[in-house]
Inverse folding.
C-alpha cells in the first residue's frame, strides 16, 4: 500500500462527495429537509472509525503471536486515528440532532452508546500510558483491545436496536432507513464512505511511519 | 428636429432604466439556488487545501525515511 494511487482516489472521492453531496437531488422529507445531506458527511466518519479499529484489533491479535513491536505500534496508531473520526462523528451527530431532534444531546441510546464506545478506546490509550515496560504493555493492551472491539460493535450496532431511538436504523429497523434506499443518495453515499475510509487509512499510515521513525531514533 | 431629439433622449433614458433592471444579473452561475454554489466552492477549496497539505506531509516523511535508511 506504499503507492499514491489510492491516496489520489480517496482525495478525488472526498472532493466528489462535497460537490455531489451538496448539489445532487435528495428526497424531500419533513423535519430533515436539506440536513439529509449530512448522511454523506456524518456517517462516513463512523465507517472510517470502524475500519481503523478493525485494523487495530487485527494487529493486536497479530502482535500477541509475533510479539513484534511494529504490530503493536500499528495497533496504537490506528486507534489514535480512529478516535479522531469517532469524535468528529459525535460532534457532527450532536449538531445534526440539535436541528432535527431539538437538542445537542438528548441522551438517545445511539448517542450514549457511541460516546461510550469512544471512551472505551480512550481507556485503551490510558491503559497503555500506565505501563512502562514495553513487552508487558504490548501484551496487556492487545488483550484489552480484543475485548474492546466486540464491545464497540455491540454498543454501536446491537444495543441501540433493542431500544427506541430517534436515530435512523434503530428501534427495530435493521440497517438504514428507507431514505437511504434512494438510488440518488447511494451514488454519493458509497463513494463518500470509501473516500473517507481511504483518507483515514492514509492518516493512520502517516502516524505509523512517524512513530516508527521516532522509535528508531530512540533506540540509537 | 427638436421633437425627434427629445424623444431620442427620453428613449435613451428609458434604456438606462431597462439596463439597470437587466444589468444586475451577471455571471449568475455562482448566485443561483440561493448562492449554494459558493458554499460548495469554499468547501472544495478547503478540502483541496487540506489534502494537498496531507500530500506534502507524506512527501516530507518519505524524504526523512530515505535519509534514515542511508544512516542505518
Amino acid at each position: 500500500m506504499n503507492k499514491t494511487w489510492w491516496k489520489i482516489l480517496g482525495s478525488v472521492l472526498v472532493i466528489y462527495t462535497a460537490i455531489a453531496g451538496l448539489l445532487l437531488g435528495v428526497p424531500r422529507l419533513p423535519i430533515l429537509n436539506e440536513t439529509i445531506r449530512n448522511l454523506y458527511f456524518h456517517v462516513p466518519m463512523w465507517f472510517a472509525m470502524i475500519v481503523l479499529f478493525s485494523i487495530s484489533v487485527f494487529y493486536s491479535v497479530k502482535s500477541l503471536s509475533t510479539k513484534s513491536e511494529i504490530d503493536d505500534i500499528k495497533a496504537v496508531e490506528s486507534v489514535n486515528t480512529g478516535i479522531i473520526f469517532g469524535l468528529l462523528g459525535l460532534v457532527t451527530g450532536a449538531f445534526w440532532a440539535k436541528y432535527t431532534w431539538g437538542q445537542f444531546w438528548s441522551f438517545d441510546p445511539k448517542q450514549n452508546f457511541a460516546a461510550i464506545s469512544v471512551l472505551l478506546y480512550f481507556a485503551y490509550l490510558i491503559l497503555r500510558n500506565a505501563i512502562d515496560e514495553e513487552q508487558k504493555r504490548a501484551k496487556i493492551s492487545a488483550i484489552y483491545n480484543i475485548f474492546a472491539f466486540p464491545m464497540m460493535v455491540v454498543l454501536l450496532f446491537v444495543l441501540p436496536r433493542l431500544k427506541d431511538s430517534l436515530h435512523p436504523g434503530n428501534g427495530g429497523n435493521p440497517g438504514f432507513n428507507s431514505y437511504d434506499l434512494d438510488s440518488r443518495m447511494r451514488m454519493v453515499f458509497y463513494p463518500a464512505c470509501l473516500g473517507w475510509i481511504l483518507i483515514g487509512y492514509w492518516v493512520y499510515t502517516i502516524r505509523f511511519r512517524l512513530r516508527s521513525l521516532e522509535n528508531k531514533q530512540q533506540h540509537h | 428636429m427638436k421633437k425627434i431629439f427629445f424623444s431620442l433622449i427620453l428613449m435613451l433614458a428609458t434604456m438606462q432604466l431597462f439596463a439597470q433592471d437587466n444589468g444586475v444579473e451577471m455571471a449568475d452561475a455562482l448566485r443561483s439556488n440561493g448562492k449554494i454554489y459558493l458554499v460548495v466552492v469554499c468547501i472544495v477549496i478547503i478540502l483541496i487545501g487540506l489534502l494537498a497539505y496531507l500530500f506534502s506531509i507524506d512527501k516530507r516523511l518519505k524524504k526523512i525515511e530515505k535519509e534514515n535508511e542511508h544512516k542505518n
User: Anything to note?
Assistant: Chain A has one domain: 43-183+203-219. Residues 184 and 193 of chain A are 15 Å apart (CA to CA).
